[in-house]
Amino acid sequence: MSFRSIEQLLRRNSKIKISQSIANGIHDQKEEQSVQALRESLLASNQLPEKFDDHHVLLRFLRMRGFNIIKAKEMFLNMLKWREDCAVDTIAKDFKFEEFDALKRCYPHGFHGVDRFGRPLYIERIGSVDLSKLMQVTSIDRYIKYHISEQEKTLSLRYPACSLAAKKHISSTTAILDVKGLGMNNFSKAAREMFIGIQKIDSNYYPETLHQLYIINAGSGFRALWKVLKAFMEARTLKKIQVAHVFFP
């Protein structure tokens, strides 16, 4: 069964249940203890919505904060507040990105099957982005809402679909970023605002959903830009990024 057909199957039947062994995976004992400690702390203060009462969800926040229970709890509660302030559940359910086709023509990006371990594979040709056209077909605010809706879709649809196909728990994405032609000249005020906004959302509210990011076709222009971009990124995220300073056909 293809990845697309699994997506369609999950869409058609919301009652599909992935077996516990696939959904939960194998838990490390020390991680299990940390997750339980965080869970009990949140429950004690009545701050754990049923939707997020999940081993892997709590584990993502713990990993991002080096298994510091206090810091992980603070990060988790900040995520809940952000979701309420930004009406994320409403975005996930009702947001319609009518300009999607126009956006794809000036910003080639999307998911393309899975990697060899079964994780969803995301590919983006950011070096080919026509930012002036992009700003004509959408706004930064609407693009960020589109990004949030895609993140929600990945959590609720893509990861369960991949877990079902791989017969193991999948909760992270492999990404390939083609930066051919990208340099400081491309990093306009609008591009900077969009990058910082998305980076903040992904790091603070969807932690540990990136498995590995491969940056390809990185030329001299990108190397200068990369020094700037790294300043906005978490150290843990940077460790997951590999930059190839060579060109591929």
Question: Can you put this structure into words, describing what you see?
Answer:
This protein has a 5-stranded mixed β-sheet with strand order 1-2-3-4-5. The chain has helices at residues 3-12, 20-24, 29-44, 55-64, 69-85, 88-94, 100-106, 131-137, 140-166, 189-205, 220-229, 235-238, and strands spanning 109-114, 120-124, 173-178, 210-216, 241-243. α10 links the parallel β3 and β4. The radius of gyration is 19 Å and the shape is globular. By secondary structure, it is of the alpha/beta class. Mean pLDDT is 87; it is low at 13-21. The chain has one domain (1-249): Phosphatidylinositol Transfer Protein Sec14p, CATH 3.40.525.
Number of helices: 12
Strand order of the largest sheet: 1-2-3-4-5
Name of the CATH superfamily: CRAL-TRIO lipid binding domain
Could you give the order of the helices and strands?
HHHHHHHEEHHEHEHHE
Q: How does the major sheet shape up?
A: 5 strands, mixed
Structural descriptors:
single chain, alpha/beta, 12 helices, Phosphatidylinositol Transfer Protein Sec14p, five-stranded mixed beta sheet, globular, 249 residues
SSE topology sketch:
Elements: H1 3-12, H2 20-24, H3 29-44, H4 55-64, H5 69-85, H6 88-94, H7 100-106, E1 109-114, E2 120-124, H8 131-137, H9 140-166, E3 173-178, H10 189-205, E4 210-216, H11 220-229, H12 235-238, E5 241-243
Helix pairs in contact: 1-9, 3-4, 3-5, 4-5, 6-9, 9-10
